[in-house]
Design brief:
Blueprint: H1 12-36, H2 41-52, H3 55-95, H4 97-126, E1 138-146, E2 152-155, E3 158-159, H5 160-166, E4 172-185, E5 192-199, H6 203-207, E6 213-214, H7 219-222, E7 229-232, H8 234-241, E8 251-254, E9 257-264, E10 279-282, H9 283-286, E11 302-310, H10 316-330, E12 342-346, H11 358-391, H12 393-401, H13 406-443, H14 456-482, H15 486-492, H16 494-497, H17 503-534, E13 545-551, H18 561-570, E14 575-583, E15 595-596, E16 612-616, H19 620-624, E17 628-631, E18 645-649, H20 650-656, E19 666-669, E20 677-683, E21 698-702, H21 708-711, E22 715-720, H22 725-742, E23 748-753, H23 754-758, H24 763-797, H25 799-807, H26 812-841, H27 857-883, H28 887-893
Parallel strand pairs: 5-10, 7-9, 16-21, 18-20
Antiparallel strand pairs: 1-2, 1-11, 1-12, 3-11, 4-5, 4-11, 6-9, 7-10, 8-9, 13-22, 13-23, 14-16, 14-22, 15-19, 17-20, 18-21, 19-20
Helix pairs in contact: 1-2, 1-3, 3-13, 4-11, 4-13, 4-14, 5-10, 11-14, 11-17, 11-24, 12-15, 13-14, 17-24, 17-26, 17-27, 18-22, 24-26, 24-27, 25-28, 26-27
């Protein structure tokens, strides 16, 4: 039985109908032959059925054979098409290396930005803390309450009793507490500050981790009277002990006690956050030397964070409601407590709200920004492909006229785009592998990064983004070109046909311009925030101030040690002056004493608490750069035995003695029975710990007249002659070396520039300004290049028109103006759309800004002017070329 071949493009229904027809034909032919041989029709039909056997079986086998033949033919055709397309792509790449290089560079830029950004966002936002079992069931506890002044507060700091209350909620599988602490490790020359995490004994089981070595400490060991034990972070174990298993049982000097190492945390484990952790200590045992005050019994002593795991089947909202009820019961008898306070259970790696730092919020925003850069790069690449398609439209029209399939043209272009994008992705992966770790540690030095910035997920994501972006960028212009009237193309010719700009080109330019506006507006807002934060009057000059901190060892120090250290420091070249301060030092330490003002029934309430006390030498205000706005500063006569005097901050004077002068007023400090401190001066306000806090209530006492426990401590402030970083670094290192030479038994010596102490609080704005600035600049350059390419192409397509204009008397300047106006019109649409979107979206980043309205007119106007200026420049270069067109040559070419 012979059968004709099945065409590869037939459907299953066609194949089944053909098989049925063919079987029916052969059955009828057999019956006809049997009848001719003398059989009756009924007998001939029965004999035919016997010869053919079960028809359904044969039918199924034939259909299956048909299907396999069709599939094989389709595979052959597909492979042939792929081979032909690849050859065409390679031929096009070799024919136009400049175009290829431009496309690869454009896509590498967009993909490279996303490759590096993906590593940041994945670690900080998507993956979050590593090594935790079922992290989706874990929540960080946030308390919402009203402060003393009635302001709404959302904070993750809770009291120890709040943590105990959480353990009573039966909708929770468990609750644990943690507290970050910078710990002193070692002694003398080798002493250093390490990043510690104080945790309760149930912390590790709650997070579901197992030790890499040894064991974790238990609840009994974490109690107040428990053994002092420590668990090392994996990276710390590797860097300090070389990964030696013999570290178990070793004794480490941390702060003032020795801790026995009982275990090593698993690799990459950093607790409930991604911040670097060098050591884990029992919270109850270690906090006695870290925290001063009645933290075990006071509801108002908030200093720990709480992590909870939801019980099976419990929702976060229901568990939070139950915990809130218990929480309010605990505060029922606390004077001044907010009866309506509530608890919220937030995800561990949230990028907004009270649980997110400014850096985390910016990191989440940067992920979207990187995608915008990729979209701009894809749009610009599409414009390049479109310009090439219009230049080659005569060849395209000829292929279509000769019967070429439009789908094949689109597939070839998509393949070329995907291939070029994969080349760009390969370069981007190399950039991420080489430069990713450096960028990560530069932008987020406090994060514990993984060993490599490139992993399988990055390769998959980048590969998919490359194929999709490249294919779309290349196929869209060809799809549009393939819809055109072939006959009209062949009639008009390439030059005339290219004269009119397509809607796709205009749309791409608008998209690029609008996205560039978004990025530049973000950069402008963060830059203005950073400038505003840097211009805050801190009340002292931090740029030339260093603070020397000394921790003494167990050996008794000589009585003249401070004087000897001070004399050595003042001999260091570049040191202008020194002064001693004890108690509260801005951004370093805080100290409060019980105060009472005669005649003041109730002490004014501020969110920051206080007032805070600083005990200073007479030259402090001059050395620190804190101005006296009323009265006088201290003098050498304000010593022990002389009348007691004080200087108060401007804010304290305004709140304690409103509408009157503070001079001559009395402040009673602590439990000293012998009279008041008379206010002799009012000093400029200063910050205590944070840039974003209000002015602090603060008062100053002469160091000689301060309480005895303050006089015994203190730090040395050092003013340098200039703010040069090299000078400050040299002074800091020399100060440390000279101090240790004088007193080798000192436990710890550190000299820090106060600007470096303040710098972490500016990190979020610096990060936003830097990333948005770089991405915005890249977007501006890419958009300008895209506009330049389109305008240049249009100028080439309008050579005849330009020649006619020149022949009719148009000057080079008028032709330049014509081209620039066309370019500005194309850019103006993108600018207008981008400004509108930015105006709508700006309030979403208001919480990340500092004293800057999200719809700042100066930023919006500056961005619009910058983009239009860049568009004018990008259009002017092709415009100058248009002005040099020779009329006779343009007409002769036509």
């Amino acid at each position: 039985m012979t059968r004709r071949a099945v065409e590869a493009d037939r459907t299953r229904r066609d194949a089944e109908a053909e098989v049925d027809a063919e079987l029916g034909f052969h059955r009828a032919l057999t019956i006809e032959e049997l009848v001719a041989a003398g059989l009756a029709p009924e007998a001939a039909e029965a004999e035919a059925r016997r010869r053919f056997g079960p028809a359904p079986l044969y039918r199924a086998r034939l259909i299956d054979l048909d299907r396999r033949i069709a599939h094989a033919e389709r595979r052959r055709i597909a492979m042939s098409l792929i081979v032909t397309s690849v050859r065409a792509v390679v031929r096009d790449i070799r024919r136009a290396p400049g175009f290829t290089l431009g496309v690869v560079a454009m896509l590498t830029l967009g993909l490279g930005v996303n490759a590096i950004t993906f590593g940041l966002v994945d670690r900080l936002v998507l993956s979050g803390p590593a090594g935790i079992t079922a992290p989706g069931e874990l929540r960080r506890v946030v308390e919402h309450r009203r402060s003393r002044t009635g302001a709404e507060v959302a904070a993750t700091e809770l009291g120890y009793l709040d943590y105990q209350d959480l353990r009573r909620a039966d909708l929770l599988a468990g609750a644990a507490a943690e507290s970050e602490s910078a710990l002193l490790y070692g002694s003398g020359e080798s002493a250093e500050r390490i990043q510690g995490l104080l945790v309760t004994g149930n912390y590790f089981p709650l997070l579901g981790v197992t030790p890499a070595l040894g064991r974790f400490f238990s609840d009994d060991e974490s109690a107040r009277e428990g053994a002092r034990v420590a668990v090392l972070g994996y990276a710390f174990w590797q860097s300090r002990f070389g990964g030696d298993p013999a570290v178990l049982g070793q004794s480490l000097l941390i702060e003032t006690h020795r801790y026995t190492v009982v275990g090593v945390a698993p690799r990459y484990f950093t607790g409930s956050s991604v911040a670097r952790r060098d050591v884990f200590l029992p919270l109850e045992a270690a906090s006695d030397e870290q925290v001063e005050g009645p933290w075990r019994t006071s509801r108002n002593f908030r200093w720990i964070g709480a992590i909870v795991r939801l019980a099976p089947g419990a929702s976060a909202a229901a568990a939070a409601d139950q915990a809130t009820t218990i929480h309010r019961q605990g505060y029922a008898d606390v004077p001044g407590a907010d009866a309506q306070s509530r608890l919220e259970f937030a995800p561990l790696n949230a990028v907004s709200g009270a649980t997110a730092s400014g850096e985390m919020s910016v990191a989440g925003l940067v992920g979207g920004v990187a995608l915008l850069v990729l979209v701009i790069a894809v749009a610009n690449t599409a414009n390049l492909f479109l310009a090439r398609a219009l230049r080659r439209r005569d060849a395209i029209a000829l292929r279509l006229a000769l019967g070429g399939a439009r789908s094949r043209l689109i597939a070839e272009q998509a393949g070329e785009g995907a291939l070029l994008a994969l080349i760009g992705a390969g370069v981007a992966v190399g950039v991420a592998w080489l430069g990713g770790p450096a960028v990560q540690r530069l932008l987020f030095p406090q994060v514990a990064w993984l060993d490599s910035a490139v992993d399988v997920r990055l390769l998959v994501v980048l590969g998919l983004a490359a194929v999709a972006g490249g294919a779309i960028a290349a196929a869209l212009p060809m799809w549009q070109a393939g819809r055109a009237d072939v006959a009209a193309w062949l009639k008009t010719g390439v030059q005339r046909g290219a004269a009119s700009r397509t809607r796709t080109q205009v749309a791409m330019l608008v998209v690029q311009g609008a996205l560039s506006v978004l990025l530049l507006v973000g950069a402008g807002l963060f830059m203005r925030s950073l400038a505003r934060a840097q211009s805050i009057d801190l009340g002292l000059d931090t740029d030339r101030l260093l603070v020397l901190s000394v921790l003494r060892g167990p050996e008794p120090a000589s009585p003249d040690l401070n004087d000897r250290i001070r004399a050595a420091v003042e001999r260091i070249p570049g040191v202008e002056a020194t002064t001693r301060i004890a108690g509260t030092l801005s951004f370093v330490s805080s100290w409060a004493e019980t105060t009472h003002v005669p005649g003041l029934a109730e002490r004014p309430r501020v969110d920051d608490g206080g007032p805070y006390l600083s005990a200073v030498e007479p030259n402090y205000f001059t050395v620190a750069g804190t101005s006296i706005v009323e009265g006088r500063a201290f003098t050498d006569a304000d010593r022990q035995g002389a009348p007691r005097v004080a200087v108060v901050s401007r804010r304290m004077a305004q709140l304690y003695w409103p509408g009157a002068s503070a001079l001559g007023r009395c402040i009673e400090v602590g439990d000293q029975p012998d009279g008041c401190y008379t206010v002799v001066g009012v000093a400029n306000d200063t910050r205590r710990q944070a840039l974003v806090e209000g002015d602090t209530l603060r008062y100053y006492l002469p160091l000689d007249q301060a309480p005895a426990d303050l006089r015994r401590g203190g730090r040395l402030l050092i003013r340098a002659t200039d703010a040069d970083l090299d000078t400050l670094g040299r002074i800091a290192e020399t100060t440390r070396r000279e101090t240790l030479a004088i007193a080798p038994t000192l436990r710890y010596v550190a000299a820090r520039n106060l600007d470096d102490v303040v710098a972490p609080q500016l990190r979020a704005w610096r990060l936003g300004a830097g990333l948005f600035g770089v991405f915005g600049l890249l977007a501006l350059v890419v958009a300008s290049l895209g506009l330049y390419a389109v305008v240049l192409f249009n100028v080439e397509g309008r050579r005849r028109e330009m020649g006619l204009r020149a022949a009719l008397g148009a000057t080079a300047g008028s032709l330049l103006g014509l081209v620039v106006r066309d370019g500005l019109r194309a850019a103006a649409g993108g600018v207008a759309l981008g400004l509108a979107i930015a105006w709508i979206a700006a309030p979403a980043v208001a919480s990340l800004l500092f004293q800057i309205p999200p719809r700042d007119p100066a930023v919006f106007a500056g961005v619009a002017a910058s983009l239009l200026g860049a568009a004018a420049l990008a259009s002017a270069i092709p415009g100058l070329r248009a002005g040099r067109v020779e009329p006779s040559r343009a007409l002769r070419d036509e």
